[in-house]
Amino acid sequence: MHTVGIDDLEPGMILARDLFQSGRLLLPSGSVVTSSNITFFQRQGIEKITVYSSPISEPDEEILKKSFGYVRDYFMFVNHDHPAMIKMFDIAVYRTAIKLMEGWSLPTYEEQTVSELDDMRDLFFRDEGKVEDVVDAEIKIASFPDIFFKVKKVVDDPTASAQEIAAVVGLDVGISTQLLKLVNSPLYGFPSEVNSLVRAVALVGSRELCTLALGLSTISYFKDIPPELIDMRTFWMHSLTCGVFAKIIAEKVKGVVPEVMFTAGLLHDVGKLIIFKKMPCSSIQAMLSARENFIPLVEAEDMTLGFNHTEVAKYMLGKWNFPIELTEIIANHHSPHTSEYKIQATILQVADNLANAIGISDGGMYVLPGIEDGAWELLGIDAESLSEIVEDYDLQIEELFQAFFN
């Protein structure tokens, strides 16, 4: 290993030691340095970094062929000529090849399926109930966290001061702690530590911070999903990944609030959790159908249940008096053209597909749902920029996951 100056640091070099600044981990040892990393380090005023002498090796033709064959199935449903999909496919193949080089084994069929649950029963059979029945049955037996309504009240008050907002958010120690971790994470990259909620409000914005708090309070609601149905760590990892991608993309599109998009990404699949709880057997049937027929899970839900998770989310968030913009974006992320917030819903759709694409190399189970015709063009983003977006994500995700779920 040796130490190089920031001006001599090159993409592909490997960090030999954890990189800290002001006690905050910026990048762990063993990480491959990207061009985005270098730009970020320069902004942070970092002068020297310790790296290993030899750069990372590239996957050979045999590994790439194996990766190509595995990843191809996940892109069965999408438009293969779509520029964004072509780029996502290339990213997924490369990341999977790297994982294979590191010793990862492709998952078996048994590992990618779920088993029937003999001790669980659905709320009703298909055509015997509606979306409203699923949501109402859930809401009747569980109350939403009080902090949500208190935060929403302060969100809706345009005269609320930073001190008042901080006081309300601070009523929940868990959420306020997570918020400070989030603000101090690479997602924001502030040069010095933000050690108070009042300071966080001043830097991020009152409505923006409250939007983040709404997302965190919603996560705390879902704690009793049967582990036989879903690995919650995997679920929230996908959700967080989607949120990070949505925020990064939003920063490239004029007129879109990144914090709203981050929260929308974090909560885009919460409708699935209600279905898991109330329709466990049908959920399994939908999962198996999606895997066996190489169709998106949302399509399998429609065929199996007669409705899907976006419809459940729309009704549920409406019952909880969620902000209309957030509700609309989440409810329409599989069909942006139907939303009043077309651009925001498109950002979420792209982020969801990108999250699924990079999740392939982590054992993802479902094919990409695809991007609606004409939606990508609304964003004004070049498909090549997706590589930079993924590099930015890689810099942030590990510390973010620790901040949210540990």
In short:
The chain is mainly alpha-helical. It contains 18 helices and four strands. The protein has helices at 35-43, 61-72, 83-101, 131-141, 146-155, 162-169, 173-183, 197-204, 206-219, 232-250, 258-267, 270-278, 280-293, 297-305, 309-319, 324-331, 342-359, 385-405, and strands spanning 2-5, 19-21, 24-27, 48-51.
Output the keywords.
406 residues; two-stranded antiparallel sheet; 18 helices; 4 strands
Write the layout of secondary structure elements.
Blueprint: E1 2-5, E2 19-21, E3 24-27, H1 35-43, E4 48-51, H2 61-72, H3 83-101, H4 131-141, H5 146-155, H6 162-169, H7 173-183, H8 197-204, H9 206-219, H10 232-250, H11 258-267, H12 270-278, H13 280-293, H14 297-305, H15 309-319, H16 324-331, H17 342-359, H18 385-405
Antiparallel strand pairs: 1-4, 2-3
